[in-house]
Amino acid sequence: MRLLTLVMLSLVVSAVADKRPNILFILVDDQSPFDLKLYNPKSTLETPNLDKLAAQGVVFDGAYHMGSSSGAVCTPSRHMIMSGRTVWHLPVSPWAARTSPPQLEQQTIPAVFNRAGYATMRTCKMGNSYEAANKLFTVRRDASKRGGTDESGSAWHAEQVLNYLRDRGANQDTKPFLIYYGFSHPHDTRDGKPELLAKYGATNHTDETNPPSLHSLQPPLPANYLPKHPFDNTDMNVRDEVSVSGVWKNRDEASIRNEIGRQYACSDNIDLQIGRVLNRLEEMGELDNTYIIYTADHGIAIGHHGLMGKQNLYQHCWRVPFIVKGPGIPAGRRVEGNIYLLDLLATLCDLASIQPPQTNEGTSFKPVLTGEKTAMRQVLYGAYAGGAKPGMRCVKQGDWKLIQYESADGKAKHTQLFNLAENPNELLTEHGSPNLADDPNHAEKLAEMKKLLLSEMRRLDDPWRFADQPSDNLPPPPAPPKKIKKKK
Ligand SMILES: [Ca+2]
Q1: pLDDT at 482
Q2: Distance 75 CA to ligand 1 centre (A)
Q3: What values do phi and psi take at 338, rounded to 5?
């Protein structure tokens, strides 16, 4: 009798456990929010599955990655996603030994969800990521797939998830799942599938000395396109600015429009692959009990402001697309949010009723998802220190944004002040839009934003200061840990 009670109790417990929500976290590599029609009505990229997801859930206008101490912006971004820690407190940060707890990987998404009894699965690219955490997923199917066929491109990642879901069904696995559904694209090399390249008038261009042909189906130039970035931003010769296959140092209209066409061909394919997985979840009856999060590790320039890469702090690179759908999230909403990618761990824990680890520094934005709040914070900070130091910093409050640039040798030195409500594309003097940082009428606002930037740099343990800031007696930071590869 006692045994029977125990058996019945365990059945009840597992029935309760079954109701915990699943999580499908979709992460693409290098996508600007402005690539998507959801964020830029002039975009010609077609993403029916993301549009549907957005209509059924909530779209964030203010989602950001906090920055990078390396040219490989992917790496710190992916550490922040996994660990919920701020940009200067990561195992890959300059003062890692002092600011990042030992064995942090044991407090990351896969470790936390494994301990909570979730089934965890991951597919994504290899490299420029967080290997110690990645290998903790119970099922891991990683490979870099940036080719133009189903086997060598994004469909491969979809297959891994579909196979996993099939095996789950076959094994009658009733644990809730957390699937990390990552793609290797639209990161370059942007080798799209032939039919999708044709849809966007693009070719997989390989001749560095001659531009590709212009085509009417190629996407238009971005509103803030420039043939050259007008000043030294502290890292003008980073790999993305000079050696991306298909563009290299070329910034002519045809090269840029063709490359955006390639980007769209890759993103269009990703959308199709997302649709396949969502359809399968629906067939399995799991869709309504699954939180689906869509985002990118950071944005990308491809012609905006004369830049190609992600190594800058303009909105096209600092911001990320961010869409969430799931149980209890009202449909069809649009919010500012003011979240960082590093808030994900805390939020996923909150949605799954799991205690976040003590090492977490992010804030759950569940109140934004459920409609209790429209934004999590007022001030946002961004950093890029992959080139000359201190590099670039930005701070945003309301419509106002300050970006400051400086190299230690003084060769690069520039300050920009934007009102994003009036100038959402961050148009520069070269576009005919004056730099408000040079306008005496905005001197007070400039001083206020500079003060805000310093307070954020202090709060977040930024290891550098600009020449016009107090030195705070900071010692020069040590060289970054060896694991960071500089070039990607
Ligand atoms: Ca990336």
Answers
A1: 63
A2: 8
A3: 50, 60
